Amino acid sequence: MKIKLLSNMYPSQKDLLFGIFVKKTVLALEENGAEFTQKIVIKGKRSSSFQKLLTYTTYYLKAVFSVFHREHELVYIHFLTHNLPLISWYNLFQKKPIVINLHGSDISAVKQNSWIDKYQAKMLKKAAEVVVPSQYFKAIVQERYPDINIPFYVYPSGGIDTTIFYPELSKRKSLSISFVSRIDKGKGWRDFLSIFSELNTNGTKIHATIAGDGAEKESFLEAIKNHSYNHLIDYRGFQSKEQLAEIYQSSELFIFPTQLPESLGLVGIEAMACQNVVFARNIGGPTGYVESGENGFLFNSVPEAVQQIKKYLALPKESKEIIQHKAFATAKPYEAQQVASNLYANFKTLCSTS
Protein backbone atom coordinates (compact mmCIF):
# COMPACT_ATOMS: atom_id res chain seq x y z
CA MET A 1 0.00 0.00 0.00
CA LYS A 2 1.38 3.41 -1.03
CA ILE A 3 0.87 6.49 1.15
CA LYS A 4 1.74 10.17 0.81
CA LEU A 5 2.49 11.92 4.12
CA LEU A 6 1.95 15.63 4.83
CA SER A 7 2.95 16.81 8.29
CA ASN A 8 4.13 20.17 9.60
CA MET A 9 5.78 18.43 12.55
CA TYR A 10 8.52 15.78 12.44
CA PRO A 11 11.60 15.14 14.61
CA SER A 12 15.02 16.50 13.74
CA GLN A 13 18.43 15.80 15.23
CA LYS A 14 18.05 18.94 17.34
CA ASP A 15 14.37 18.53 18.27
CA LEU A 16 13.98 14.82 18.93
CA LEU A 17 10.50 15.12 20.47
CA PHE A 18 8.96 17.47 17.89
CA GLY A 19 6.37 15.38 16.07
CA ILE A 20 7.76 12.12 17.45
CA PHE A 21 4.26 10.61 17.33
CA VAL A 22 4.15 11.18 13.54
CA LYS A 23 7.50 9.48 13.04
CA LYS A 24 6.49 6.54 15.27
CA THR A 25 3.30 6.10 13.25
CA VAL A 26 5.19 6.19 9.94
CA LEU A 27 7.70 3.58 11.15
CA ALA A 28 4.91 1.36 12.49
CA LEU A 29 3.01 1.51 9.19
CA GLU A 30 6.21 0.73 7.25
CA GLU A 31 6.83 -2.29 9.46
CA ASN A 32 3.37 -3.52 8.47
CA GLY A 33 4.07 -3.15 4.75
CA ALA A 34 3.20 0.46 3.92
CA GLU A 35 5.35 2.34 1.40
CA PHE A 36 5.54 6.12 1.75
CA THR A 37 5.97 7.44 -1.77
CA GLN A 38 6.52 10.96 -0.41
CA LYS A 39 7.14 12.39 3.07
CA ILE A 40 6.58 16.13 2.93
CA VAL A 41 7.37 17.25 6.47
CA ILE A 42 8.78 20.08 8.57
CA LYS A 43 11.60 18.70 10.71
CA GLY A 44 12.18 20.41 14.05
CA LYS A 45 11.10 23.78 15.41
CA ARG A 46 12.13 27.23 14.18
CA SER A 47 13.18 29.95 16.62
CA SER A 48 12.46 33.11 14.60
CA SER A 49 9.39 34.33 12.72
CA PHE A 50 11.45 34.66 9.53
CA GLN A 51 12.64 31.05 9.78
CA LYS A 52 9.06 29.87 10.35
CA LEU A 53 7.83 31.85 7.34
CA LEU A 54 10.56 30.45 5.11
CA THR A 55 10.02 26.89 6.36
CA TYR A 56 6.26 26.95 5.91
CA THR A 57 6.53 28.56 2.48
CA THR A 58 8.84 25.76 1.36
CA TYR A 59 6.55 23.15 2.93
CA TYR A 60 3.43 24.49 1.20
CA LEU A 61 5.17 24.78 -2.17
CA LYS A 62 6.40 21.19 -1.99
CA ALA A 63 2.97 19.97 -0.94
CA VAL A 64 1.14 21.96 -3.63
CA PHE A 65 3.31 20.66 -6.49
CA SER A 66 3.31 17.11 -5.10
CA VAL A 67 -0.41 16.84 -5.91
CA PHE A 68 0.68 15.89 -9.42
CA HIS A 69 2.83 13.05 -8.08
CA ARG A 70 0.15 10.35 -7.99
CA GLU A 71 1.80 7.06 -7.15
CA HIS A 72 0.06 7.01 -3.79
CA GLU A 73 -3.24 5.37 -2.90
CA LEU A 74 -3.95 7.51 0.17
CA VAL A 75 -3.00 10.96 1.51
CA TYR A 76 -2.24 10.94 5.24
CA ILE A 77 -2.30 14.43 6.78
CA HIS A 78 -1.18 15.17 10.35
CA PHE A 79 -2.42 18.24 12.24
CA LEU A 80 -5.51 19.86 10.79
CA THR A 81 -5.10 23.60 11.40
CA HIS A 82 -1.83 24.18 9.56
CA ASN A 83 -2.81 22.00 6.61
CA LEU A 84 -6.24 23.44 5.81
CA PRO A 85 -5.25 24.98 2.41
CA LEU A 86 -3.58 21.72 1.37
CA ILE A 87 -6.70 19.69 2.09
CA SER A 88 -8.67 22.04 -0.21
CA TRP A 89 -5.99 21.75 -2.87
CA TYR A 90 -5.74 17.95 -2.79
CA ASN A 91 -9.49 17.53 -2.77
CA LEU A 92 -9.68 19.72 -5.87
CA PHE A 93 -6.97 18.03 -7.94
CA GLN A 94 -7.05 14.35 -6.97
CA LYS A 95 -9.61 11.74 -5.97
CA LYS A 96 -7.50 9.62 -3.62
CA PRO A 97 -8.87 9.24 -0.06
CA ILE A 98 -7.62 11.81 2.44
CA VAL A 99 -7.10 10.76 6.07
CA ILE A 100 -6.73 13.54 8.64
CA ASN A 101 -4.99 12.66 11.90
CA LEU A 102 -6.00 15.06 14.67
CA HIS A 103 -3.51 15.64 17.48
CA GLY A 104 -5.54 17.59 20.04
CA SER A 105 -4.40 21.19 19.99
CA ASP A 106 -5.54 21.49 16.37
CA ILE A 107 -9.03 21.44 17.90
CA SER A 108 -8.64 22.62 21.51
CA ALA A 109 -6.47 25.65 20.63
CA VAL A 110 -8.92 26.92 17.99
CA LYS A 111 -11.63 29.28 19.23
CA GLN A 112 -15.07 27.82 18.67
CA ASN A 113 -17.13 29.50 15.91
CA SER A 114 -14.11 31.47 14.69
CA TRP A 115 -13.46 31.57 10.95
CA ILE A 116 -10.69 28.98 11.38
CA ASP A 117 -13.08 26.73 13.30
CA LYS A 118 -15.65 26.96 10.50
CA TYR A 119 -12.94 26.33 7.90
CA GLN A 120 -11.83 23.24 9.83
CA ALA A 121 -15.39 21.90 9.90
CA LYS A 122 -15.59 22.33 6.14
CA MET A 123 -12.27 20.55 5.50
CA LEU A 124 -13.08 17.67 7.86
CA LYS A 125 -16.10 16.92 5.68
CA LYS A 126 -13.74 16.34 2.76
CA ALA A 127 -11.85 13.59 4.56
CA ALA A 128 -12.47 9.90 3.94
CA GLU A 129 -11.67 9.28 7.60
CA VAL A 130 -10.54 11.14 10.72
CA VAL A 131 -8.02 9.50 13.05
CA VAL A 132 -8.17 10.49 16.74
CA PRO A 133 -6.03 9.39 19.71
CA SER A 134 -8.83 8.33 22.07
CA GLN A 135 -12.54 7.75 22.49
CA TYR A 136 -12.52 10.77 24.80
CA PHE A 137 -11.19 13.01 22.04
CA LYS A 138 -13.53 11.50 19.45
CA ALA A 139 -16.45 12.64 21.62
CA ILE A 140 -14.91 16.12 21.88
CA VAL A 141 -14.64 16.43 18.08
CA GLN A 142 -18.13 15.07 17.46
CA GLU A 143 -19.59 17.51 19.97
CA ARG A 144 -17.65 20.37 18.38
CA TYR A 145 -18.67 19.45 14.82
CA PRO A 146 -22.01 17.61 15.05
CA ASP A 147 -22.71 17.95 11.30
CA ILE A 148 -19.66 15.92 10.25
CA ASN A 149 -20.83 12.51 9.10
CA ILE A 150 -17.57 10.71 8.35
CA PRO A 151 -15.88 7.64 9.90
CA PHE A 152 -13.66 8.10 12.95
CA TYR A 153 -10.82 5.74 13.79
CA VAL A 154 -9.21 5.61 17.24
CA TYR A 155 -5.43 5.15 17.07
CA PRO A 156 -3.82 5.68 20.50
CA SER A 157 -0.77 7.74 19.50
CA GLY A 158 1.26 4.75 18.35
CA GLY A 159 0.49 2.66 21.40
CA ILE A 160 3.17 1.32 23.75
CA ASP A 161 6.05 -1.08 23.12
CA THR A 162 5.44 -3.83 25.66
CA THR A 163 8.90 -5.29 24.99
CA ILE A 164 10.20 -2.13 26.68
CA PHE A 165 7.38 -1.09 29.02
CA TYR A 166 6.65 -3.99 31.36
CA PRO A 167 6.68 -4.56 35.15
CA GLU A 168 9.98 -5.17 36.93
CA LEU A 169 8.93 -4.98 40.58
CA SER A 170 12.37 -5.99 41.87
CA LYS A 171 13.62 -2.51 40.91
CA ARG A 172 11.38 -0.86 43.52
CA LYS A 173 13.95 -0.31 46.27
CA SER A 174 12.15 2.52 48.07
CA LEU A 175 8.84 4.36 47.92
CA SER A 176 9.03 6.56 44.84
CA ILE A 177 6.80 8.71 42.66
CA SER A 178 7.60 9.67 39.10
CA PHE A 179 6.77 12.47 36.69
CA VAL A 180 7.44 12.20 32.94
CA SER A 181 6.46 15.18 30.82
CA ARG A 182 7.55 18.14 28.79
CA ILE A 183 8.65 20.83 31.21
CA ASP A 184 6.26 23.37 29.75
CA LYS A 185 3.42 25.65 30.76
CA GLY A 186 0.30 23.77 31.78
CA LYS A 187 2.01 20.39 32.17
CA GLY A 188 1.73 20.55 35.97
CA TRP A 189 5.34 20.30 37.11
CA ARG A 190 4.78 22.87 39.87
CA ASP A 191 1.84 20.84 41.17
CA PHE A 192 3.98 17.70 41.10
CA LEU A 193 6.61 19.39 43.28
CA SER A 194 3.86 20.60 45.63
CA ILE A 195 2.42 17.08 45.94
CA PHE A 196 5.89 15.68 46.59
CA SER A 197 6.58 18.37 49.21
CA GLU A 198 3.25 17.87 51.02
CA LEU A 199 3.78 14.12 51.28
CA ASN A 200 7.25 14.49 52.83
CA THR A 201 6.17 17.33 55.12
CA ASN A 202 3.29 15.18 56.41
CA GLY A 203 5.55 12.26 57.30
CA THR A 204 5.52 10.17 54.11
CA LYS A 205 9.17 9.86 53.13
CA ILE A 206 9.09 9.46 49.39
CA HIS A 207 11.59 9.91 46.55
CA ALA A 208 10.81 11.64 43.26
CA THR A 209 12.15 10.81 39.81
CA ILE A 210 11.52 13.31 37.02
CA ALA A 211 12.19 13.08 33.28
CA GLY A 212 11.60 15.64 30.54
CA ASP A 213 12.77 18.82 28.90
CA GLY A 214 11.05 21.95 27.68
CA ALA A 215 10.65 25.71 27.58
CA GLU A 216 10.31 26.11 31.38
CA LYS A 217 13.33 23.98 32.24
CA GLU A 218 15.27 26.92 33.71
CA SER A 219 12.45 27.82 36.12
CA PHE A 220 12.01 24.15 36.93
CA LEU A 221 15.68 23.67 37.83
CA GLU A 222 15.58 26.78 40.02
CA ALA A 223 12.53 25.38 41.83
CA ILE A 224 14.33 22.09 42.47
CA LYS A 225 17.44 23.92 43.70
CA ASN A 226 15.37 25.81 46.28
CA HIS A 227 13.17 22.85 47.25
CA SER A 228 13.22 21.71 50.89
CA TYR A 229 13.55 18.08 49.83
CA ASN A 230 15.83 18.49 46.81
CA HIS A 231 18.06 15.71 48.15
CA LEU A 232 15.18 13.30 47.44
CA ILE A 233 14.66 14.51 43.85
CA ASP A 234 16.33 12.79 40.91
CA TYR A 235 15.95 14.87 37.73
CA ARG A 236 17.19 13.04 34.63
CA GLY A 237 16.29 15.37 31.75
CA PHE A 238 15.36 13.94 28.37
CA GLN A 239 15.27 10.14 28.43
CA SER A 240 15.08 7.36 25.84
CA LYS A 241 12.17 4.90 25.91
CA GLU A 242 14.36 2.34 27.66
CA GLN A 243 15.37 4.88 30.29
CA LEU A 244 11.74 5.92 30.80
CA ALA A 245 10.78 2.28 31.32
CA GLU A 246 13.43 2.02 34.06
CA ILE A 247 11.89 5.07 35.78
CA TYR A 248 8.41 3.56 35.70
CA GLN A 249 9.69 0.16 36.84
CA SER A 250 11.47 1.74 39.82
CA SER A 251 8.37 3.70 40.86
CA GLU A 252 5.13 2.52 42.35
CA LEU A 253 3.23 5.76 41.79
CA PHE A 254 3.03 7.90 38.65
CA ILE A 255 1.73 11.46 38.97
CA PHE A 256 0.03 13.00 35.92
CA PRO A 257 -0.88 16.55 37.04
CA THR A 258 -1.34 18.16 33.62
CA GLN A 259 -3.72 21.12 33.52
CA LEU A 260 -4.28 20.69 29.78
CA PRO A 261 -7.03 18.61 28.14
CA GLU A 262 -4.63 15.99 26.78
CA SER A 263 -6.16 14.11 23.86
CA LEU A 264 -4.79 10.82 25.25
CA GLY A 265 -1.87 11.09 27.67
CA LEU A 266 0.25 8.14 26.53
CA VAL A 267 2.74 8.45 29.43
CA GLY A 268 -0.01 7.38 31.81
CA ILE A 269 -0.56 4.19 29.82
CA GLU A 270 3.21 3.54 29.65
CA ALA A 271 3.30 3.79 33.45
CA MET A 272 0.33 1.43 33.78
CA ALA A 273 2.11 -1.09 31.54
CA CYS A 274 4.87 -1.10 34.18
CA GLN A 275 2.24 -1.73 36.87
CA ASN A 276 2.33 1.82 38.25
CA VAL A 277 -0.67 3.28 40.01
CA VAL A 278 -1.50 6.48 38.11
CA PHE A 279 -2.76 9.58 39.91
CA ALA A 280 -4.07 11.84 37.13
CA ARG A 281 -5.80 15.18 37.13
CA ASN A 282 -9.47 14.75 36.32
CA ILE A 283 -9.19 16.27 32.84
CA GLY A 284 -8.72 15.13 29.25
CA GLY A 285 -7.59 11.78 27.96
CA PRO A 286 -6.65 10.10 31.27
CA THR A 287 -10.31 10.25 32.31
CA GLY A 288 -10.94 7.71 29.55
CA TYR A 289 -8.63 5.03 30.99
CA VAL A 290 -8.23 5.81 34.71
CA GLU A 291 -11.12 4.49 36.79
CA SER A 292 -10.68 6.22 40.13
CA GLY A 293 -10.25 3.74 42.95
CA GLU A 294 -10.11 0.79 40.55
CA ASN A 295 -6.97 0.97 38.37
CA GLY A 296 -5.71 4.39 39.51
CA PHE A 297 -6.99 7.65 40.94
CA LEU A 298 -8.29 10.98 39.59
CA PHE A 299 -7.90 14.27 41.43
CA ASN A 300 -8.92 17.92 40.97
CA SER A 301 -6.39 19.71 43.19
CA VAL A 302 -3.05 19.25 44.95
CA PRO A 303 -4.65 18.61 48.38
CA GLU A 304 -6.95 16.00 46.85
CA ALA A 305 -4.00 14.30 45.12
CA VAL A 306 -2.11 14.13 48.42
CA GLN A 307 -5.20 12.72 50.13
CA GLN A 308 -5.66 10.09 47.38
CA ILE A 309 -2.00 9.02 47.58
CA LYS A 310 -2.11 8.69 51.38
CA LYS A 311 -5.35 6.73 51.08
CA TYR A 312 -3.70 4.33 48.62
CA LEU A 313 -0.56 3.93 50.76
CA ALA A 314 -2.71 3.02 53.76
CA LEU A 315 -4.33 0.10 51.91
CA PRO A 316 -3.37 -3.51 52.69
CA LYS A 317 -0.73 -4.99 50.39
CA GLU A 318 -3.30 -7.23 48.68
CA SER A 319 -5.55 -4.27 47.83
CA LYS A 320 -2.60 -2.35 46.37
CA GLU A 321 -1.68 -5.34 44.22
CA ILE A 322 -5.24 -5.59 42.87
CA ILE A 323 -5.11 -1.94 41.74
CA GLN A 324 -1.68 -2.45 40.17
CA HIS A 325 -2.82 -5.55 38.26
CA LYS A 326 -5.89 -3.70 36.99
CA ALA A 327 -3.62 -0.88 35.80
CA PHE A 328 -1.48 -3.41 33.93
CA ALA A 329 -4.57 -4.96 32.34
CA THR A 330 -5.77 -1.51 31.22
CA ALA A 331 -2.54 -0.97 29.26
CA LYS A 332 -2.64 -4.28 27.36
CA PRO A 333 -4.97 -3.21 24.50
CA TYR A 334 -2.55 -0.35 23.68
CA GLU A 335 0.25 -2.68 22.56
CA ALA A 336 2.10 -0.93 19.72
CA GLN A 337 2.38 -3.76 17.18
CA GLN A 338 -1.30 -4.58 17.44
CA VAL A 339 -2.60 -1.01 17.16
CA ALA A 340 -0.26 -0.36 14.19
CA SER A 341 -1.40 -3.55 12.45
CA ASN A 342 -5.02 -2.53 12.99
CA LEU A 343 -4.38 0.96 11.58
CA TYR A 344 -2.70 -0.45 8.48
CA ALA A 345 -5.56 -2.90 7.91
CA ASN A 346 -8.00 -0.02 8.32
CA PHE A 347 -6.16 2.04 5.68
CA LYS A 348 -6.17 -0.87 3.23
CA THR A 349 -9.90 -1.33 3.71
CA LEU A 350 -10.43 2.39 3.23
CA CYS A 351 -8.59 2.34 -0.10
CA SER A 352 -10.36 -0.76 -1.36
CA THR A 353 -13.79 0.76 -0.73
CA SER A 354 -13.04 4.27 -2.06
Automatic annotation (TrEMBL):
EC number annotated for this UniProt entry: 2.4.-.-
Gene3D superfamilies: Glycogen Phosphorylase B (3.40.50.2000)
Transmembrane segments: none
Sorted UniProt keywords: Glycosyltransferase, Transferase
Molecular function (Gene Ontology), one example: glycosyltransferase activity
UniProt cross-references to SUPFAM superfamilies, sorted A to Z: UDP-Glycosyltransferase/glycogen phosphorylase
Top-level taxonomic group: Bacteria
Pfam families: Glycos_transf_1
Keyword Glycosyltransferase: yes
Keyword Transferase attached: yes
Residues of the Glycosyl transferase family domain: 170-324
Alphabetized PANTHER family for the sequence: GLYCOSYLTRANSFERASE WBBK-RELATED
Name this protein carries in UniProt: Glycosyltransferase family 4 protein
Source species of the chain: Mesonia profundi
